[in-house]
Amino acid sequence: MNRNAEMDDSSLWRNARLATLREDLGPLGIIEKGAVAVRGGRIVYAGAEDDLPSDLSSADQVIDCEGRWMTPALIDCHTHLVHGGNRAREFQLRLEGATYEEIARAGGGIVSTVKATNALSVEELVAAALPRLDALLLEGVSTVEVKSGYGLNIDAELKMLRAARQLERLRPVRIVTSYLAAHATPPEYKGRNADYIDDVVLPGLSQAHAEGLVDAVDGFCEGIAFSPAEMARVFDGARAIGLPVKLHAEQLSNLGGAKLAASYGALSADHLEYLDADGAAAMAKAGTVAVLLPGAFYTLRETQLPPVETLRTAGTRIAVATDCNPGTSPLTSLLLTMNMSATLFRLTLEECLAGVTREAARALGILQETGTLEAGKSADLALWNIEAPAELIYRIGLNPLSERVFKGERIAR
Ligand code: DI6
Ligand code: FE
């Protein structure tokens, strides 16, 4: 980059209250009268305005934040954003008394989303996902993890991942993908999980990886899905090609999935309502982040709370995410997710906010790049019209975003 281009790229946000989320600066990493200087899309200074180096005090663009609060841009580290159709009709039927089983027998449930997803082209999947993505972005989100897992055959799994990658070209957002062919057993492989893994999951993973479509490998470890032994085979496949793993674990029962994930050095284990102390300790030791998903807990009217105190005692890192999916969490708001995490799970303000920034970045393996306000990282920022950070988790349905910045670029609401 030549000197002029670099100058064109310089911005300074001043007179801001910063919640940097830097751990070495105490709860929320607060700096009361702060400034953030950006060059070429990267933060070169985030700290007290009084200490701003003089060579950074001028910039092409100087934004007076008028005392507004700035946080790192938000990160949704667990979504099934790309899928066909919706399950609103099913939701309605359940209100009228139908059980989940009856609906599944009538061709509903996850199988209906698999059908709807298989019926769409990449372009149609992208078009279906964009309104959901836009809803997230409007609340200050700049990074979204997107899973496959509603294809359940090689072509359709690849199609979902191509659609996910395409989203990054259409919007100012960072997309991180997870290969989730081990989400459910398709009807044609009913009772034959091992064959499905051999015929579809593992060869599909090689193909998707060869196309550069996969950032991590995920699975659903549950009685109704894949056992720990079956997931271990999938994880061995991921390890063989150098991909990190993560797991939907302990959502409906305790099969020891989190412990298995930790033994593979997983980035995260997600859901975890039925996690025990052993699993939490194994995760803490491996640096595996616990991703809590209150949208699914709420939608399923689950009563088993995730063991938050056990996670705290073990020192397990905690992130929170929408789990945006048509069946169990039709949720596209990280602000509401934070509110639910506080109200339903009793997470503290610090845990909620870290859970959608620093810890979410850690859960995606991109903490070096984003997730805190810190020199050297991508300039992914969110500026809020609030008097105190607690307002971000307290309100229900009000969006106080003033502006979002992605890689140094200002994006109006
Ligand atoms: N856990 C869930 O709750 C969803 N997937 C998963 O792994 C269910 C997805 C669906 O019902 O479509
Ligand atoms: Fe999920």
CATH topology of the largest domain: TIM Barrel
Can you tell me the CATH class of the largest domain?
Alpha Beta
Q: What is the average per-residue confidence, as pLDDT, rounded to a whole number? A: 96
Q: Helical element count?
A: 16
CATH superfamily of the largest domain: Metal-dependent hydrolases
In this entry the ligands are: 3-[(4S)-2,5-dioxoimidazolidin-4-yl]propanoic acid, fe (iii) ion
Number of domains: 2
Unreliable runs: 1-7
Percent range of helical residues = 25-40%
CATH architecture of the largest domain: Alpha-Beta Barrel
Strand content: 15-25%
Shape: globular
The main β sheet shows up as: 8 strands, mixed
Q: Any idea what the radius of gyration is?
A: 21 Å
DSSP strand count: 16
| Structural class determined from secondary elements | alpha/beta
Distance between the termini: 29 Å
Would you write up a description of this structure?
The two termini are 29 Å apart. Strand 10, helix 9 and strand 11 form a beta-alpha-beta unit. The chain is built from 16 helices and 16 strands. The protein has helices at residues 3-8, 88-95, 100-105, 110-118, 122-137, 154-170, 193-210, 228-240, 257-263, 277-286, 294-299, 308-314, 334-343, 349-355, 358-363, 391-394; strands spanning 11-19, 30-39, 42-48, 61-64, 69-72, 74-76, 141-147, 174-182, 216-221, 246-249, 268-271, 289-292, 318-320, 381-384, 401-406, 409-412. The protein has 2 domains: 10-72 and 372-411, Urease, subunit C, domain 1, CATH 2.30.40; 74-364, TIM Barrel. Strands 1, 2, 3, 4, 5, 14, 15 and 16 form an 8-stranded mixed beta sheet that branches. Strands 6-7-8-9-10-11-12-13 form an 8-stranded parallel beta sheet. The chain binds 3-[(4S)-2,5-dioxoimidazolidin-4-yl]propanoic acid and fe (iii) ion. 3-[(4S)-2,5-dioxoimidazolidin-4-yl]propanoic acid is lined by residues 110, 113, 183, 220, 248, 251, 296, 325-328.
